[in-house]
Amino acid sequence: MKDYYETLGVNKGASKDEIKKAFYKLAHKYHPDKKEGDEKKFKQVNEAYQVLSDDAKRSKYDQFGSADGADFGGFSTQGGPASGWDFSGFQNGSAEFDFGDLNDIFSDFFGGGGGRREARRGRDISTEVQISFSDSIFGTNRKILITKTSSCLSCHGSGAKAGAGIAACRTCNGQGKIRESKRTIFGNIASTKVCEVCLGAGEVPKEICESCKGKGVQRREEEVSIVIPAGIRDGEMIRMTGFGEAVSKGTTGDLYIKVNVVPHAVFKRDGHDLIMNLNLKLSEALLGIEYPIQTLDGEIKVTIPEGVSINEILRVRGKGVPISKSKRGDLLIKLNIKLPSKISRKSRELIEELKKEGI
């Protein structure tokens, strides 16, 4: 039996506020949308919180015990006799009771089930695209082909033959669920389950679609248009809601696209700024020069002032990564002064004269 207190990491005397804080912390940690999320644990945490946050449900849960051994009206889950009941029959398999699915029993018993249909959801899928450095800065649109389970093109997901229409499900009489009685250690317990024929929809096609055999979905190749936003970084993920795999009588999953950015030969990114190196001759560094530079926006001319230092950085505003529609980062130009490995006799004489002048 599940121990909801242990699931949330709180003791049995925990206050509602402590239970809520524990739930928020674990739900944030295990949420399926997070990179390190865990859908199974997220559902377990949510189930525990739904019971322990409700006073009536918590009271019933506390009355019937927890995973460390519960007393159900004279029945001991520890396996030994309690209040005159002999459990030896359960151990050798001769007992007539059907334990069934205890999870479903408690869901109905505590009011958490009630035959409500849990929404069906298609599988999330992922793929990768490769873009240029320039496209990562300014954004771009891409089209890709993905083979996945999608809504049937013939019946548009209804599962019905064109013009045949829909009829009420005879199995559940259009209710979408079936009521049944289970014989358990608590006695006969009435419960409901989703109709397996109509999957909870309460209706079925009069004639099934020949393309998808009535499933409403089929596996096929589909073209997907991707909008890659300006300023995206290498390795970032784009989530496209409803572009994953479809499922009959349910919602479509999501598509996750990992963006791989090809490195640039000149520019590197630092936040919203772009950085590049510029090699200057010694004479250019001493006397200054107007230098043409090919940026991602096209060619510009940068004025290198006289007497710049090695590793000095020049800033060109507004030529970096877009921050908003009207604002961009800057282009940072790191100046490298290239010293000659060999000099001529004339150059040496000129340098000697500079040396005498203290330069």
UniProtKB/TrEMBL annotation:
Keywords: Chaperone, Cytoplasm, DNA replication, Metal-binding, Repeat, Stress response, Zinc, Zinc-finger. GO terms for biological process: DNA replication; protein refolding; response to heat. Zn(2+) 2 binds at residues 169, 172, 195, 198. Binds 2 Zn(2+) ions per monomer. The keyword Signal does not apply. Its cofactor is Zn(2+). A zinc finger (CR-type) spans 139-221. Pfam families: DnaJ (PF00226), DnaJ_C (PF01556), DnaJ_CXXCXGXG (PF00684). GO terms for cellular component: cytoplasm. Residues 3-65 form the J domain. Zn(2+) 1 binds at residues 152, 155, 209, 212. GO terms for molecular function: ATP binding; heat shock protein binding; unfolded protein binding; zinc ion binding. InterPro entries: DnaJ (IPR012724), DnaJ_C (IPR002939), DnaJ_domain (IPR001623), DnaJ_domain_CS (IPR018253), HSP40/DnaJ_pept-bd (IPR008971), HSP_DnaJ_Cys-rich_dom (IPR001305), HSP_DnaJ_Cys-rich_dom_sf (IPR036410), J_dom_sf (IPR036869). Its main location: cytoplasm. Homodimer. Participates actively in the response to hyperosmotic and heat shock by preventing the aggregation of stress-denatured proteins and by disaggregating proteins, also in an autonomous, DnaK-independent fashion. Unfolded proteins bind initially to DnaJ; upon interaction with the DnaJ-bound protein, DnaK hydrolyzes its bound ATP, resulting in the formation of a stable complex. GrpE releases ADP from DnaK; ATP binding to DnaK triggers the release of the substrate protein, thus completing the reaction cycle. HAMAP family: DnaJ. The J domain is necessary and sufficient to stimulate DnaK ATPase activity. Zinc center 1 plays an important role in the autonomous, DnaK-independent chaperone activity of DnaJ. Zinc center 2 is essential for interaction with DnaK and for DnaJ activity. Belongs to the DnaJ family. This is Chaperone protein DnaJ. It comes from Candidatus Nomurabacteria bacterium RIFCSPHIGHO2_01_FULL_39_10.
